[in-house]
Amino acid sequence: SWTGSATDLVSALGLSLAPKSLSQRFEQQSNDNKEFGRSAARVRSGGRAIAVEWQNCGRTWGNPRCPCLHSDPLIPDCKPGEMVRARGRLWFEA
Predict the structure, then answer these.
(1) Over 60: is that where the pLDDT of 60 sits?
(2) What is the rounded CA–CA span in Å between residue 36 and residue 90?
(3) What pLDDT was estimated at residue 77?
(4) Whole-model pTM?
(5) 34-47, pLDDT tens digit by residue?
(6) Is 46 in contact with 33 (CB distance < 8 Å)?
(7) What CA dihedral angle connects 82, 87, 89 and 90, to 10 degrees?
(8) Three-state helix/strand/coil letters over the chain
(9) 3-14: per-residue pLDDT in tens?
(10) Which of 4, 41, 78, 86 is most deeply buried (CB count within 10 A of its CB)?
(11) How many Å separate Cα 53 from the centre of its chain?
């Protein structure tokens, strides 16, 4: 479970999760190799893929000028001391 703010969570999810050797396979600066569904976003390179999905997703998107993809969860505001949960999945396909 996440105990930080919703803004911190979304910022943390924007970090690169792949080591440099893996990220070089997904460095194409285009949306041509990306798929955007209602709750999941996927990038493909050859026979490999990375996908991320959130329940209660607000939008999926990618920036064609950089090798990124996003699945943005809608997280309710949380008062200090309270907790909210967001459920999601991250896939690495080979």
Answers:
(1) yes
(2) 14
(3) 86
(4) 0.69
(5) 999 999 999 888 88
(6) no
(7) -20
(8) CCCCCHHHHHHHHCCCCCCHHHHHHHCCCCCCCEEECCCEEEEEECCEEEEEEECCEEEEECCCCCCCCEEEECCCCCCCCCCCCCCEEEEEEC
(9) 555 545 554 454
(10) 41
(11) 7
